[in-house]
Amino acid sequence: MMKRILSLVLCLLLAVGMAAMAEEAAQADTTTGTPWMDPEVLGNVTEDTPTDPKDNFALYANKDKILTTEMPAGLPMAGQLVNGQLQAIYDVLGMYMQEAPEEHDALLAYNLYWMLMDWDSRNAVGAAPLKQLTDQVEALSSIDEMSEYLLQTPTELQLHSAWEGGITINPNDSTSLVLAVEPKSLMLEDAGEYVQETELGTLTRQAESQLAQKLLVKLGYTEEEAAAKIQNCLAFEGMLASAMHPDSFKHSPEYAASVNNFFSREEMKELQGSLPILEAFSAAGYPEMDQYIVKEPEYIRKLNELWTDENLQLIKDCFIVRGSAAFASRLDRECYDWIQESNNMKNGTPGAVQPDEMRFSAMVSRLLQWPVAQLYTQTYLKPEDKERIAGMIEEIRQAYHGILNEADWLSEETRAKAVEKLDAIQKNVLYPDSWEPYSCEELNFAGPQEGGTLWEAMMAIDRYNTKQMVEQINKPLDHSQWPDASTPHTYNCFYLPNFNAIYILGAYVRPLGDLSAVSDEELYAKLGVTIGHEFSHAFDPTGSQFDKEGNMNFWWTGEDGAAFSEKAERLAAFYDGIQPWKGVNCPGNIVSGEACADLAGMKVILRIAAQKEGFDYDAFFRAYADNYMSVMTPEVARQLLGDQHPLNYLRINIVLQHFDEFLNLYDIHEGDGMYLAPEDRVDIW
Predict the structure, then answer these.
(1) In a domain, 196, yes or no
(2) Is residue 298 one of the residues assigned to a domain?
(3) What is the pLDDT of residues 136-182, one digit of tens each?
(4) 634 part of a folded domain
(5) Can the peptide bond before residue 183 be classed as cis, meaning omega within 30 degrees of 0?
(6) How far is CA 111 from CA 53, 101, 115, 309, 365, in A?
């Protein structure tokens, strides 16, 4: 924990800490990975670096692009996936450069973008709206008043909360919603950092503390008061973190079942103790429910234990520190720049400046998802592409039939249910077929020409979102309606286990250009493998816990389930043995789900390729490697080691070395870096 110190000393420690981090990064030899050097890390690859497809295919296929790729302004990472995300942002940005649209929903997005860009108006408002919120919390004099604050203050005006409450899909009935309670996010992001702080945790603490220090001083606190509040915030979160799941567990197969804890209303009353959780649901407009989900009951028990007058100052300071950072992006230029400095510190890109246009275009896309989505679809996406991809999905589905039928370790009982689930997977391609369910006609705020302010617009959006959630709770869940995370302008593809559905979003496909002109090899490498990857999530360590209806229902026989778990554990152990650089191992338990999907996605496409006369495997493997080409700072590489996806160069090398089609094409044998003996391969499917 931080010591209570004067701001000047705090800032000095931050500077020294950053220098130490930079020195550690400089001393770490990121070229010492085994069995391969990570070519993604900036500086690892030079003109003199030798390449050979037999030793490090990711390096061999991507060396030229690695050397010539420039880091986009303000970003710590570049490459094909980043380019796709940037194209989605720039595509949306182009829509705001036209005349103001007349249609209601599109005009909302247009007005919000230009209010974000209007620094004169934002600077005139300054931090005054945020100070009103912090003053309200500062004035609370008892824990009872804190509880009353959470009940009487509209959700959009609450500076912070000690828990998250809202709707989620009922894991036992995927056609219904249930109210759920879960922990609030932490300053250090990962609860495990409060138990044993890592380099990444130290960097995050330094960056977030520096941001909070500046914001609090701007709000009128002295340097000493600001430093004390930051210390209190970290201290209070540290007490709560001991009762929370660390990130390392959140990516494990056991996590999904661990957070589906049902409590009756009477059990909820007992669990919450002096906390006004049920009362807060009622104040927000939610009806009384027979059952609730508590994702981490121990967190609620710990919070109730700490919800006392003795801890009031810690709680208030936590609200003020965390709430100030959450609202700061809505304020003036100075606050906005401080946020960017904090992000740059965490990403290892000091001094980098990403254009406002890019950031605000992305922000509007998150805040007004469906108004942006409809305009994006009308502008960029084509029905004929939707039709072609839908056909490819069915081709991949049929190929999966062959994979399931040939899995000799499955019993006929489990195989039959797997095939049923496969056939029931819904396909959602590029954009929804109908836009009627996504209308935002009830959302209104004054535009810049009417004297509206960004702060007022953001409050209106928050208020509208809360109202929408309250209205949804008693409605049956329509699986044909796309969830908010699946907007067409989002650069992503995913499988949703509660819906048993895959989503291939428009922005992910757009970088391929005119699909009619794309070769089979490139299309299957850059899109087909991804579709196969998403299909396989229905059968990965987490997806396998949900049945064809999207309900949490383990449909495997005990023997088959054990055999599958053994395969997944073997794959996790395989990744555990990989070192991106000396002394740092891949977290196999975290990446096993995505790694399983990577292997299955490649397997199903190679099965299809075998049926295509004259298929160019060299072009296919190169296009696959190109899809994952990237460069990044060492800091970002460290951060991504905690992500559920393996590092990109491993998604190339490890996947390819598992298949004879690759090994035979490049004449790879024992002793070569890309060789993997048959007995060491992990054949999940």
Answers:
(1) yes
(2) yes
(3) 999 999 999 999 999 999 999 999 999 999 999 999 999 999 999 99
(4) no
(5) no
(6) 51, 10, 6, 44, 13
**Burial class of residue 400, CB neighbours in 10 A (0-12, 13-18, 19+):** buried
Largest pairwise CA distance in the chain: 77
Distance of alpha carbon 531 from alpha carbon 396, whole angstroms: 8
271 close to 284: Cβ distance less than 8 angstroms: no
How would residue 544 be classed by pLDDT, with cut points 50, 70 and 90? confident
Cα–Cα distance, 684 to 537 (Å, whole number)? 12
- Give 231-244 as a DSSP string: HHHHHHHHHHHTTS
Distance, C-alpha 13 to centroid of its chain: 31
Predicted local confidence at residue 27, as pLDDT: 55
Contacts of 365 (CB under 8 A, 6+ apart): 88, 89, 92, 372, 487, 489, 490
Q: Residue 220: CA atoms inside 13 Å, Cβ hemisphere, count?
A: 11
Strand partners, 505: 430
Q: What angle do CA 658, 659, 665 make, to 5 degrees?
A: 130
b vs e for 198-227, b when ≥16 Cβ sit within 10 Å of the residue's Cβ? eebbbbbbbbbbbbbbbbbebbebebeebb
Instruction: Answer whether residue 655 is part of any domain.
Output: no
Please state the pTM of the whole predicted model: 0.82
Map tokens 């302004």 to a residue.
73
CATH of the domain at 256: 1.10.1380.10
User: What 3 state SS string does 418-455 have?
Assistant: HHHHHHHCEEEEECCCCCHHHCCCCCCCCCHHHCCCHH
Strands 291-294 and 177-183, how do they pair?
parallel
The sign of the torsion formed by the CA atoms of 586, 592, 598, 603 equals: positive
Task: State the residue for tokens 């705090």.
Answer: 10
Q: Domain count for the chain, please give it.
A: 1
The pLDDT of residue 19 is 34
